[in-house]
Amino acid sequence: MVSVIIIFLNGGTFIREAVDSVRAQSYPDWELLLVDDGSTDDSSAYARGLAVEHPGRVRYLEHPGHENRGMSASRNLGLANARGRYVALLDADDVWLPGKLQSQVSMLDAQPEAGMLYGASLYWHSWSPTPRGQDTLMLARVRPDRIYRPPDLLPLFLTGAAMVPCPSCILVRREAMVEVGGFESEFRTLYEDQVFFAKMALHAPILVSNEYWINYRLHPQSSTAVEGSGTFPDPARIRYLDWLERYLARSGKGRRDLRATIRHQRWLQAHPRIAKASMDLEIFLRRWRRRLIPWTRPHSIRMPARNR
C-alpha cells in the first residue's frame, strides 16, 4: 500500500534511527526503498545488508556507477521503483512517530479526491545531548482538516503565510506524484522540496492536518544548514522563483495573481532592507494571529522519552 523512500548521502550517523522508525510503524503494509546518492561512508553497506536481510520488504537502489546525482534525482529513482498506492518520503536524519502511516493512510482513504496530505512537524533539538534550542511543534498555519484546491496553497507557501511542509511529513498518491513528473532533477539540494510542493499545489487538491507525525532533526550537517545562505539576495530562492515563473508559463497555470506574487518575492530579494521590514511585519502579525486563532500557534512541547 505504501512505498517509503529514504534517500541518503553519507547518512551513517542517523539512517539507522530513521529506518527503525519505519519498522516500528503500527501500519504493516509498506515497502522500504533505500536510495543511495553516492555515499562513501558505512551507510551503503548498512542499506545493502538490510535489503539482503529483508528481501521483498526492503530494496537498495543506487545510480549507475554509484554516482551522486542530488536529492531530486534520487527521489525520482525511488518513485520509478515504487509499487505502492501511496508514497511516503523520509529524510535519513528524521524520525517518524509509530502511528504516522496508520493515521495518514486512513485520512487519504477517506478523502479520495486529495492527491497529497501533510501535517505538523516537530522542530527537534532535544535529540542532541547539547540542544541549541527548544523543541517546537510547527503547525501548518492554515485552517486544518480541509482540502485546498489548486492553486490556493501556493501563494501562501511563497509569502510564508503557510508553513511549507517537511518532506518527511507528507503522504502522496503515487499516480498524482507521477502525473506532475515527480521532482525536478536540476534542483539537487536547496528548494528541491518547494519545487515539488509548488507542482502539487498547482495540480492536485491537498489535505492539510495539524496532527504531528514526525521529528524534523535540526543539526549542523543538514543540507539546509550547510548550503543555505540565510541572506538577501538568496541565489537559491531566486533560482526557484525563476523556475516557477517558467513552469507557470509552460503549464498554462500562470494566473495573474501568482505571477504578481512571484515578481514581488523576486523584488524583495533585491531590496534587503524592505524584505527585512516585511519579515518583521509578518512575524508581528503572526503573533497576533496566534493569540486569536488557536490553529496557527506553534507549541513548545516536551518530547516523550521513547522519541528522545
Spell the H/E element sequence: EHEHEHEEHEEEHEHHEHHHHE
Largest sheet: 11 strands, mixed
As a whole number of angstroms, the C-alpha radius of gyration is 19 Å
Number of helical elements = 11
Look at the structure and give the mean pLDDT.
Answer: 90
| CATH fold annotation | Spore Coat Polysaccharide Biosynthesis Protein SpsA, Chain A
Q: Which overall shape is indicated by the principal axes computed on the Cα atoms?
A: globular
Helix/strand class: alpha/beta
Number of strands: 11
Q: Domain count, please report it.
A: 1
Ordered list of secondary-structure elements with their pairings:
Blueprint: E1 2-8, H1 15-23, E2 30-36, H2 43-53, E3 58-62, H3 71-81, E4 86-89, E5 95-96, H4 100-110, E6 116-124, E7 136-138, E8 146-148, H5 153-159, E9 171-173, H6 174-179, H7 192-203, E10 206-217, H8 223-227, H9 235-251, H10 256-270, H11 272-292, E11 299-300
Parallel strand pairs: 1-2, 1-4, 2-3, 6-10
Antiparallel strand pairs: 4-9, 5-10, 6-7, 6-9, 7-11, 8-10
